[in-house]
């Protein structure tokens, strides 16, 4: 398949990997907020959440660079659907950026960097404004919920295109042969 008919293997892999990671981070994030200080996961879960979040941020930047430097297939559908799809994709990236920044602000307000597994440390900028952790935490929470709702809508629309419209929208992202 040519890139104009389907996303290449790199974009498909990044899309599905990002989807799984985002859903996983959301689920773990909801679970983490109820951990007690005495839970064996109290330190481990946030460490993994932050580490995977940083790796997702790096991957997302790579994905945007790949998208900017490679030919992508055209968006199918009515004019309003194409505009909505473009707006939806841009909003997803904006929400991800907001999650990355707010997560960073939560984690580094005490002056400590974010240790990404044992591979490297993202340095801290410290507390940039009063109540940074609380404000960034609220933003992180509500943006995460918004992202999951938008991602669910994205999936529902892909299924609509596949089953109702019978176009190639979903096939482009799963690597199936276009009709």
TrEMBL record:
The chain crosses the membrane at residues 14-33, 48-66, 87-106, 139-159. Keywords: Cell membrane, Electron transport, Heme, Iron, Membrane, Metal-binding, Transmembrane, Transmembrane helix, Transport. Residues 7-176 form the Cytochrome b561 bacterial/Ni-hydrogenase domain. It is found in: Cell membrane. Its cofactor is heme b. Belongs to the cytochrome b561 family. This is Cytochrome b. It comes from Salinivibrio costicola subsp. alcaliphilus. The lineage of its organism: Bacteria, Pseudomonadati, Pseudomonadota, Gammaproteobacteria, Vibrionales.
